[in-house]
Every structure is written in C-alpha cells, then in structure tokens.
Design brief:
Length: 333
C-alpha cells in the first residue's frame, strides 16, 4: 500500500473577468472528479473557518466515477469556480457538522439543484409550449431528478434542517417542504456501537465511509445521549483518518485511526477553544506523527515547521492531491 503526493496539471492559474467588474482567478482546465479507479483525496482548502490565507477545509474524495464532497463551506463555491466547477458537479455529499465553514454553501447547492438544474439539463424542445415545458420542469423537480445524495444519520437530520437550512429553504413553493425535497436522504447501511460513541457506515459508490463522533464542543456542553450538537470525524476506505473539527483526544486517534495510512488532524497554533492545538499534537507518539498531516489550520500555523516536530506535513490544497495505490483486499474500517 502506498500514498503519493501529486500535483495536477490544470494549466495556467490566472485572473479572468467573468462579468462586468467581477473577476475570478481560474485554472485553464477543470478539476478532474474521476480517477482510473484508485482513491484520491482532494482538499479545496486547508484553513480553519476564519483563515484568510488557506481557504476553508472541505474535501472531495474521488474513486473511479464517484466523487464524494465532504462539507461545503460558505466560501466553497467560489473555490470550485476557480477549478471550473460548480454545485452542479456535486452528486454525493456528507456533512460533518453545522458550522458555516462546513455548511455555508449547502443552501446554494439545494436551491440550484432544485430550480436551476432542470433548466440546464432539460432544454426546451422544438414546438414545445411554455406551459408544457414548465409542466415537464415541475415533474422533474417533484421526482427529485437532480437532487444530490446526502449521507446523513438519523441523529443529524433534525439539526441540519431546523438549525441550519430551514430558514433559507422553507420560503419556496410549498409550506411543508423539508430536507427530503432537496436531497436524496441516504441513511447509514450499518451502525455499530458498543456505547453511544461508535461507527456509522455508508457505501458511496465504491467508497467506504465510516463516521465516528468526536469532541468539537466545549467540555460539558455535549448532550451525549443523542450527540447534540452533531459532530463527526471520518475514516475513508479504512485508509484515511479525518479527525473532523475536534478537541485533542488521543483515544479517538487510537480507536479509529490506528490502522490508517494517512491521518488528517485539525490544528491551531494557540491553546483553548474546541480545536486541537499544536503543542497537544506534539505529544503524540512518533509513529503516529509520521503519518499525520495537519489541516483546518489557523493562519499562525503557516509560521511553524511541523516537519521539524516529526509530522508528515501540513496538508496541501488542490491542485495538490493525494493518490492511493489500489489494493485488492482491505479490512473494514
């Protein structure tokens, strides 16, 4: 098994005027969302929610013809535009928790998929009247023809709708609209728990995803009975550990990341709050640090040489990607 850092050739990165007075830096070639079958990790950014230098930490997990978007923050769609992509390229999405740097563009995704996608994908036919065309559009909307798949556990459905999306999405064509009107809800195929903390599993195409509850809330502010606020980390194909936003907790790494080839952990350069800080992560065993890439970084982390303290590196954003050699057999996460 092996993982390698690859720089994609996306051509020139240069400013383009996209409308009068509005421009965007953009690559010549679009970001590929398929591979030849191997697993690929793409980071749209590696910064914390308030980073002004590293974009927000949202991921795309690609394997073969499947691209799973992990989180879609408030600045994510502008980042996608730099790569010649938009929310219309999203067919599979999973959200780790409700902060705006992870959910801020979900409303745009939901609305554009419901109201804009039908007109893009179903052009008006020759001789078709406006009335007939609109009926065909509405039928496609009601069938959910363009809804992206949302991989979500029962414990998060209510919170995501009521606390994050309802206010912006409920003002639409019917009063009893809900999450399932905008997304194809995909519940876990399996839940394995010896206690309230444990695994939830999904198959996303040929990508295996396991989620585990982490500790991204102040001590004493977690209602562990049903995990509110909901916040999770992930293991991808049993190979990539993603801590999610979490306080430092060695038990999470030992329990869920011990057998992974690549470990990603959020990190800030100062103590306190609801994220791990660098001095805490430096106490990890050397064998773990050698496989660990730091992400969700506060801007102050740019001034620290993390390799000098035994870490693999700071994670890098696209067009740098991380490719994993195919393996014939792997153990379940």
């Amino acid at each position: 098994m092996a993982m390698k850092r690859v720089e994609l050739d996306l051509g020139k990165y240069e400013p383009k005027l996209v409308s009068p007075g509005v421009g965007v830096w953009q690559y010549e070639k679009p970001l590929p969302l398929t591979t030849d079958g191997h697993l690929r990790l793409i980071a749209l950014g590696v910064g914390a929610g308030f980073s002004n230098k590293m974009r927000q930490s949202n991921f795309i997990i690609v394997k073969g013809q499947t691209a799973l978007f992990v989180d879609l923050g408030a600045k994510a769609t502008m980042r996608l535009a730099e790569f010649g992509r938009s929310v219309h390229d999203i067919e599979h999405i999973l959200i780790t928790h409700s902060h705006a740097d992870h959910t801020g563009s979900l409303e745009e995704l939901a609305l554009k998929k419901r109201y804009e996608a039908p007109f893009l994908k179903l052009p008006k036919q020759p001789g078709e009247s406006d009335a007939e065309y609109m009926k065909r559009i509405v039928r496609a909307q009601n069938r959910g023809q363009f809804r992206p798949a949302l991989y979500i556990g029962d414990e998060y459905v209510h919170e995501l709708w009521e606390d994050v999306l309802r206010g912006g999405l409920m003002v639409t064509e019917k009063t009893n609209i809900g999450l399932a009107d905008f997304f194809k809800i995909k519940k876990p195929r399996e839940i394995t728990r010896k206690n309230p903390d444990g695994w939830e599993y999904w198959n996303v195409g040929n990508i295996r995803v396991a989620s585990f509850f982490n500790k991204h809330a102040p001590e004493g502010n977690i209602r562990s009975h049903f995990h509110y606020p909901y916040t999770v980390g992930l293991v991808i194909d049993g190979r990539i550990f993603i801590s999610g936003d979490t306080r430092f907790d060695l038990s999470l790494i030992n329990e869920f990341g011990q057998n992974c080839e690549m470990l990603l952990h959020d990190c800030q350069h100062y103590p306190g709050g609801v994220h791990a800080n660098f001095n805490e992560l430096k106490t990890l065993p050397a064998e773990i640090r050698r496989r660990m890439y730091l992400y969700h970084l506060s801007d102050g982390m740019l001034n620290i040489d993390v390799k000098a303290d035994g870490f693999a590196s700071r994670l890098e954003a696209a067009p740098i990607v991380y490719d994993f050699d195919p393996i014939t057999n792997s153990n379940e996460a």
